[in-house]
Every structure is written in C-alpha cells, then in structure tokens.
C-alpha cells in the first residue's frame, strides 16, 4: 500500500510539533521552511515550556531558559510581576530544526512559491524544486494565504525595534500608551528589543518608522529604566501584522491549517507559541484519522474546526478583558475598538446545572478521532470526556437520575474521587 506523503509548510512551533507528532505515528514527513528574516525575542511563561516539552521539542526548550524580572505599567498602576522567560527566536528556530532532524524528519530550506493540486499536491519552491505530497499541512503562520471566509478583528500592527547595548541583567516590561501598548526586553548580552502594538491605520510612512518609535521610547520612563540613553536611538524597525484572524475553514480531506495559519490572535491575548501549540498538538491525530479512517473524516474535521474556533474565541476574549482593564484610556479609539471585541460574552460562564448535558462528540483516543459520550457545561461547550482519567458521562448521568454516588465512585482512587466530587460541586450537580 502506498504510504501517504505528508508535507508540512513551516518549521515554527506549530509545524514542528505537528511533524514530530506525525513521525511518532509512523508517517514519513517532510518540512519546508525558510529562515526568519529579522531578529526577535519573545517572553514566554512556564506553561509554554511545558507545552514544548510535551511536543517533543526539548532542544528548543533549552533555548528558553533565560528568566527575567517583569514590570507592568497598566491602568495607572506599577506592578512587579512574576518572572518570564526570554526566548531568542532565531536561536529557537535553529533549535526547532535540530529537534526535527533528530526525530528523523526531513527538513528542506526554501519557500513555497506555487502550490498545485490534482490527485496529489505539487509544491514549487523558489529554487526550482518540485515536491509532491498526498497531504498538506499549512503551518506558515500569518504568511499563509488567507481564506475567503476568515474572521478579522481590529486591524493591528506591531513595530519591533532592536539594537545592541551594554550587557546587564535580563529584564522585561509592558506598558500602556495613549495609542497602543509596548512590550520591551533586555537580554543578558545587551541586546534590546522594544515593540509597540497599535492601530494599523495610524502607521507612519516607512521612512519615518525609526524616528517615530524613538520618540515614543524617549517619552517612556520605563524604557529609560531598561535601556538608558539607548532608548532614544533611531533603531531599525520591522513592521508586522498583529490583527486577530480566524482562518475560517481550517481542515479538508487532504489538508489542514495549524498554528497562526489557523488562528492568529492579538499579542495581548497571550503568548503566540502557546497558541500555536494549542492547535498543533491535536493535528497529528486528526490527520491520522483522515488518512487511516476516512469513514470518520466528518468527525475528525468537526473536532479540529470546533476546537480551533473555540480556542480563538477564548484567546480573543482574554485579550478583550486585558484591554478592558485599562479604564483610564477607554475613551480613546485604540482601546475602545478592542474593549468590546469579539463580543460581550464573559470569558468564563457561571456554572449552571441546567446547562449540563451528556452528548456524543468527537474525542481523541489512541491516536485517532472517535465519538464518545462527553459532558457539556456552560463553560465547556465542546464537552469534557475524562477528569483524572475518569469518564464523566456515566457519573453525571447517575447524579442526574438521583442515584447515590457512593456506589458509582466506589472503584476510584482517593485522589480521583476527590477531584470528581469537587468538579460535580463546581457544576452544581451535587
């Protein structure tokens, strides 16, 4: 039997995690990616490190070991927050490729110039190579072609400036501004990074970007604290879109979108790497189902599509709530556009035992998507299958029927029993 040829376009966190997951399932995978064209640094949390470890990206994880103290100036308050990890994206990208190679994944440096599709895919690279594949994974982030049915939020742009300064203790900070907000970081080797996120419509002419950003830094006491006199330097600026985008249709019979190619959110909504991993970790099992169990294709596509959309809305509402905390600037256009988008629904809905239902939904099991009974709640509309390894549907059904739970929970370990009972109380089922 012909072994399906899988081609992943993009070797960022989403593409790498998908490729390694497919390799673990026994598929031959080729990854095509070009190198990042600009220097960048990101601040990531402990849960991002855990996500990288779970995805098999240990080498990349080792690049995220530099912790830094973080300050926050928001809504007139000055807070000293917990540490975050500063990640050099160029070193991180090299480490991702090393992880792929060590996992036995073929990596080709190049850029997809044209994609044709009949029985299979023919991907033309900029150096003249033509690669054939039976299944295509779109993981080129915001560089991926946009779908016609996409959902877009307020048009947003981020301007990133970087320079070489004097070595010092790693540090990072975030502050709100009248027309946007800025994140900044100082690495131990003295490299400085400063990024402002603002409305795209207010973007100065390209030739004026460096001076525009230098003036904003010169006005910032926080930037002066981190960078000293270098805060006012007219450093080179790289502009990139930060507009929240949900791609619309994210999966077909022989293709799938992952990471920022499926959903890209405002930087204030959370770390981009975590968001990319959130959709990519499920993708190998979705692909495996499409290729090995075509009779379940509808379930697999439903699973991926619903979870991408749900993740996008949760991240978008998280960003909305962070914007809403800046009450002092709520009347300004930048803040007003974002404090009510994407909707007014609370990030977390209150527990409602009338909303609890047992329904059949697609779930992940043994490397495939299958259908199982899950428990839908007000805050978990896609359903919860297991808690601490315990199927919830039989327990909820018994509780709703008025049966005594002692017999239902009798076979559980003590810690499982405690967790399940707590969850039942939180949902107001008991």
Descriptive account of the structure:
This protein is α+β, with helices and mostly antiparallel strands and 430 residues long. It has three domains: 6-67 and 81-150 and 243-338, FAD/NAD(P)-binding domain (3-Layer(bba) Sandwich); 156-241, D-Amino Acid Oxidase, Chain A, domain 2, CATH 3.30.9.100; 353-426, no CATH class. The chain is 31% helix and 29% strand. It has helices at residues 13-24, 46-54, 58-62, 89-102, 209-218, 221-227, 272-280, 283-292, 297-324, 333-338, 393-400, 405-408, 414-426, and strands at 6-9, 29-33, 41-44, 66-74, 77-88, 106-109, 112-117, 121-125, 130-133, 135-138, 151-152, 156-164, 171-177, 180-186, 191-199, 237-241, 245-246, 255-257, 263-264, 357-365, 368-376, 386-387, 390-391. Strands 3-5-4-13-14-15-12-16 form an eight-stranded mixed β-sheet. A five-stranded parallel β-sheet has the order 6-2-1-10-18, covered by helices on one side. Helix 1 (13-24) crosses helix 8 and helix 2 (46-54) runs parallel beside helix 7 (272-280). It is globular and about 70 Å long. The mean pLDDT is 91.
């Amino acid at each position: 039997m012909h072994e399906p040829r899988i081609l992943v376009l993009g070797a960022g966190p989403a593409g790498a995690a998908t490729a390694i997951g497919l390799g673990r399932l026994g598929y031959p995978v080729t990854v095509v990616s070009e190198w990042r064209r600009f220097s960048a640094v990101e601040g990531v949390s402990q849960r991002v490190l855990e996500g990288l470890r779970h995805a098999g990206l240990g080498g990349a994880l080792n690049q995220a070991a530099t912790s830094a103290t973080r300050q926050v100036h928001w809504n007139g308050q000055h807070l000293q927050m917990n540490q975050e990890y500063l990640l050099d994206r160029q070193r991180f990208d090299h480490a991702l490729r090393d992880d792929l190679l060590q996992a036995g994944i073929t990596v080709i440096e190049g850029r997809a110039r044209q994609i044709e599709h009949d029985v299979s895919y023919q991907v033309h690279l900029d150096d003249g190579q033509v690669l054939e594949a039976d299944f295509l994974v779109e993981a080129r982030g915001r560089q991926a072609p946009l779908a016609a049915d996409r959902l877009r939020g307020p048009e947003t742009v981020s301007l990133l400036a970087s320079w070489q300064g004097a070595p010092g203790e790693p540090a990072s900070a975030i502050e709100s501004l009248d027309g946007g907000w800025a994140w900044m970081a100082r690495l131990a080797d003295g490299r400085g990074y400063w990024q402002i996120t603002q409305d795209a419509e207010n973007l100065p002419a390209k030739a004026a970007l460096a001076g525009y950003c230098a003036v904003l830094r010169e006005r910032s006491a926080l930037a002066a604290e981190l960078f000293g006199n270098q805060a006012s330097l007219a450093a080179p600026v790289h502009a990139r879109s930060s507009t929240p985008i949900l791609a619309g249709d994210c999966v077909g019979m022989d293709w799938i979108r992952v990471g920022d190619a499926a959903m890209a959110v405002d930087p204030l909504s959370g770390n981009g790497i975590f968001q990319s991993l959130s959709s990519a970790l499920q993708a190998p099992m979705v692909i495996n189902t499409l290729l090995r169990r075509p009779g379940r294709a509808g379930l697999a596509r439903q699973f991926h599509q619903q979870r991408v959309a749900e993740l996008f809305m949760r991240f978008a509402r998280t960003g909305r709530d962070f914007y809403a905390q800046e009450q002092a600037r709520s009347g300004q256009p930048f803040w007003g556009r974002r404090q009510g988008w994407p909707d007014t629904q609370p990030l977390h809905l209150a527990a409602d035992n009338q909303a609890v239902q047992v329904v059949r939904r697609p779930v992940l099991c043994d490397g495939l998507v299958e259908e199982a009974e899950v428990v839908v709640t007000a805050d978990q509309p896609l359903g919860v299958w297991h808690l601490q390894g315990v199927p919830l549907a039989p327990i909820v059904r018994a509780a709703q029927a008025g049966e005594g739970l002692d017999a239902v929970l009798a076979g559980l370990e003590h810690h499982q029993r405690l967790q399940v009972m707590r969850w039942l109380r939180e949902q107001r089922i008991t």
